[in-house]
Amino acid sequence: MQITASMVNELRTKTGVGMMQCKKALTETDGDLDKAVELLRKQGASVAAKRADKDAKEGRVFLVETPSKAVAFELSCETEPVSKNEDFIALSNLAIKAVLEQNIQSVEEMNAAVVDGIKVGDRLQDVLVKIQENISFRKLAVIKYGSNDIIGLYSHMGGKIGVMTRLAFDGTPADVAVLKAAAKDICMQAAAFAPVAVNNASVAPDTIEKEREIARAQIVNEGKTRPEFVDRQIEGRIAKVLKEMVLEDQEFFMTEKNPKKLSVKDYLSSVGTAQGLKSLAVVEFIRFERGN
């Protein structure tokens, strides 16, 4: 069957793939448009397999808030210019709409979601075929919240880092906007200082054990070998490390708002007191960094 320019153009309009790829797909499917679309999508899977070993450390972290939850997801690609490509942006907008309209809880559910008759995973394959890069939803996380919670969102450097926090309060705030601003401030804190947990209790045991081994090696290398001295020094050094790793124990970084150099926990307590609350505390956060 003769493949005409109008057939190629129709397939190109439908898929966004280059003219030569469209012509080849139509040739291989004897001019059947639907089969050509299917072939290009299958080729997308082939491209993904071929590009799987390529680092996809560019892209962007997206943050979405709904009346009952906040969602962070990373859409990754290999090169920075692709993250600004109109097809990449259209794909991310489709994913955002899926989050707003559906109960998306995982990357798998994102790929399977259907929005306006379009399956997100199929659209991703279309973009992959067109751009010829390793593109994927790398990770996704959800924070659910209720009436006594405040959600904060912060995107740093155009989506290089994205942070969500949930603050819980007890009482009736004088100004909810103040709490919303405080939640965003804590997001900025987490973006800048990369805590690993909200509090000491939520630090992974293997993380503490690794730090304990490092501290022991440091002390021995310093020539201090008396067991009672080593044990005491280890616990002191672990306490110091945890103060840097744990969000609520970090010093709140905004000097103009925190002249007393309070910890995040004590700073939020002071904000809560000023708002007439019994308590105000950070209870959950998600920090995504592009490529990690």
Output the CATH topology of the largest domain: Tetrahydropterin Synthase, Chain A
The percent range for strand residues is 15-25%
Secondary-structure element string? HHHEEHHEEHEEEHHHHE
State mean pLDDT (0 to 100 scale): 91
List keywords for this structure.
single chain, 292 residues, alpha+beta, Helicase, Ruva Protein, domain 3, Tetrahydropterin Synthase, Chain A, three-stranded antiparallel β-sheet, elongated
Q: Can you walk me through this structure?
A:
The structure is a single chain. The chain is of the alpha+beta class and 292 residues long. The chain has three domains: 5-51, Orthogonal Bundle (Helicase, Ruva Protein, domain 3), CATH 1.10.8; 54-144, Tetrahydropterin Synthase, Chain A (2-Layer Sandwich), CATH 3.30.479; 146-203 and 246-292, Elongation factor Ts, dimerisation domain (Tetrahydropterin Synthase, Chain A, 2-Layer Sandwich). The protein contains ten helices and eight strands. It has helices at 5-15, 19-28, 33-51, 86-101, 107-112, 120-131, 176-193, 205-221, 227-245, 264-274, and strands spanning 58-65, 69-77, 114-115, 118-119, 136-144, 149-156, 161-170, 279-289. The strands form three sheets. Strands 1-2-5 form a three-stranded antiparallel beta sheet. A hairpin with a 3-residue loop joins strand 1 and strand 2. Helix 4 runs antiparallel to helix 6 (120-131). The longest helix has 19 residues, at 33-51. The radius of gyration is 25 Å and the shape is elongated.
Question: Topology of this protein?
Answer:
Blueprint (H helix, E strand, L loop, with lengths): L4 H11 L3 H10 L4 H19 L6 E8 L3 E9 L8 H16 L5 H6 L1 E2 L2 E2 H12 L4 E9 L4 E8 L4 E10 L5 H18 L11 H17 L5 H19 L18 H11 L4 E11 L3
